Amino acid sequence: MDVFQINQHDDRPIELTVKNYEYKTRKTDPFYVEVNKVMKYYAVCPACKNPIIIVNLYVDKTLDKNKNKMPVHAKHCKYSVTNLAEYSQEAYDDCPLGNPSKFGGSSKHRNKNRSNEIVGLIKDYPVVLYNEIRRITCIDFTEKTFSSMLDTFIKAEGYYYKYINKYNLPYGFLNMQKSIRIFRNKLYYSPFKSEMINSINNSEFFQYKDYIITPKLKDGFYEIELYLANHKIDSEYEIETIDLIIIEKSNGKTNQIFKKTVKIDIDKYINAIDKHRRINGITEAIKLID
Ligand SMILES: [Zn+2]
Fold it and tell me: From the CA of 248, how far away is ligand 1's center (Å)?
């Protein structure tokens, strides 16, 4: 994974970078530990509180046998680390970061606390979810579309889905929507926005004109939809990816016009929620005049 935490009572993930890790740990015990003359770097998993080990912290330019760069990342340890964390197999088996469930299907858990936490996040911070699904897909979904997505989620009891947790909620939320109509939608800010515009303009039936996804021809029946597919778990690096796919349809013909594999960011959503909570706290003491 590419997040860590140093405090067992804090479940907010911190993005794993050399700078963040050095700053948070102060390069001290019990995070920096010399074992048999080799320095090891530890932290805790924000979700399951088990110890994790940081790999390639100072060697992120190392190449593997296929000459791929080996990035800094963290992996769960299967042992206790003195003065840091006791290893718990049970917590690991349940950890959404170390042992994620495969996306898809509708198998459910029946943990009321867990489902209520998800429902609470959606109900209290809908804007955060709305912003996240737009950021992930680059589609500026209309409020009407967002409302119908919420309907789908609640009706299907998405909050009980095994593969959905508070870290990956926006991805799980999108994934369970099947296909989402994006006809006449605007695009949202994203690093791959220009790539998406090119794909739409190069499609058979659609174009991005006047900041809207619109058919090239006025007459006829055209449809354009987005969906998520092909969720992959890389257990070596403990990261997950999923594909964003856009298809167009007309007269029984379907073309795939865009496909992008994106990494599932598990820190963005829950940290955005936390920020909203803090910002709300700033105005809490302000009173209305009677
Ligand atoms: Zn974990």
Answer: 40
Q: What is the pLDDT of residues 143-176, one digit of tens each?
A: 999 999 999 999 999 999 999 999 999 999 999 9
Q: How far is the CA of 117 from the centre of ligand 1 (A)?
A: 18
Residue 128 exposed, middle or buried by CB count within 10 Å (0-12, 13-18, 19+): buried
Q: How far is CA 282 from CA 237, 275, 279, 289, in A?
A: 38, 11, 5, 18
Q: Which residues pair with 285 in a beta bridge?
A: none
CA 16 / ligand 1 centre spacing (Å)? 14
CA of 9 to the centre of ligand 1 (A): 13
pLDDT (tens digit, 9 = 90+) per residue, 196-217?
A: 999 999 999 999 999 999 999 9
Every domain of the chain and the residues it spans: 3-93, 112-269
